[in-house]
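I have been asked to look over a protein record a colleague put together. Alongside the sequence sits a line of tokens, each denoting a local backbone shape. I have pasted the whole thing underneath without changing anything:
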Amino acid sequence: MKHPLALAISAAALAFTTTALADDPQQGGTVNTIVQPEPPGLVLGMIQNAPTRVVAGNIYEGLLRYTTGLEPIPQLAESWDVSDDGRTYTFHLRENVTWHDGEPFTADDVVFSADVFHRELNPSARAVLQHVESIEATDEHTVVFTLIEPFGPFLLSFEAGTFTMVPEHLYAGTDFRNNEHNDHPIGTGPFKFANWERGTVIELVKNDDYYEEGLPYLDGVNWHIIPDGGSRAVAFENGTIDVLPSGTVENFDIPRLSEMDNVCVTEEGHEYFSPYSMLWMNNREGPTADKRFRQAVMYAMDREFARNVLWNGLGKVPLSAFGSNARFQDDSLEPYDYNPERARELLEEMGYDGEEVTILPLPYGETWTRWAEAVQQNLREVGINVRTQATDVGGWNQRLGDWDYDLAFTYLYQYGDPALGISRTYLSDNIAKGSPWNNVEGYENARVDELFNEAATAYPDEEREALYKEVQEILHEDVPVGWLMELGFPTLYRCDVKDLVNSSVGLNEGFRDAWLDR
């Protein structure tokens, strides 16, 4: 049965779709929204954190966009060809694109952005570029990427935040990080940078020379900086703010705000990143080193309760290591349903003697604290001696980086393809102290390593699917980590803001198509 808020979201989405089809978009108006926290800068590609992405994704562009189903669609590239052996990708660029300073966008900008700018500054792009043998501009509007070997997720790599197009004429031969244009970013996107009043607002204005005829409809977008969560909620309630991006208010405020008149809610717009919450389980020592204990933890947790009560019915309970938005998910696996009796049987089978284990909550707000308390209660109910150890963000990072934990909450992005966002959690060569984002649990399985590495470069997709099916079966049995939730991060907005979320990165590029029905 759907939770009431989830039903409200479905109804709002239906109303949104029907209205959008019935009405013609109107030109004009400015939308007021929030960015939190204030970004350190706006040169996308040089800076890739979430606040920079959500603002600068409307200034800069990539070669491709992606639907909510993660299918590539044209952006700066209007079409592309892939060779039969999966090694050569030819992109045909739009011919009527200019940078915000009026200079033409050409294939040379693509080569510079990918082969120079991103190789130096962008770790996400570098991970993809290690599979690239050469990048060549064959004419002003054609770019050819030749790969060393096939790389399955290559076409998923050209989103603006990963492969940002930057102007060669402004950056070539300069110190990129200290370039004078960093304070006034120049892109090809639907909005131009206008003003940044530090601590108060970032103002974007319409790009009148945008290559998509008729777009954007809006005159501008103002990104307000309001440090306090309660004040952000009040600003939305009193009409100062039109759009609340995900994560800008406390989770417990969402039901109240979503019930206001003229407020719509959507979970769409996060499919590319696919935020996925996990419970790190230390595979190295103690009870958590026994897979039967880890399986017992899975059966002991009431994940549906967490979704329905703590997350307001938003998100999805995951089947296993591959989320529902990830390519090649094997949905035939037997789910780890809430089954306390099975958990007790596994603990008895392994001879668990009551040794204490600790839980490290994620210090990201009250919802996460409550979630840790709920899991602690679940585990105690099946006989696990468990204690919570709260930390601040710095302490959480250090404890995980030093592997000083038993169980710990986290969430990572899955990025749509196993080779981009999933394999990093399980590959044994990704075990390294000092980072809370790699194979923190210390899982080692030679066959899993082999399967992930082979699948990343297998071609065509049918071969990848077979390899990933086997790796999912092994992970499902070994339970290296606890699979908690495919997180639902809702965006709240006035219902008269139309066509706001229309791709898998949501507000990061959503304002190009948005319009006001006022």
Summary: The first strand starts at residue 30 and ends at 34. The domain at 25-59+189-270+489-517 is CATH 3.40.190.10 (D-Maltodextrin-Binding Protein; domain 2). The radius of gyration is 24 Å. The chain is about 30% helix and 20% strand.
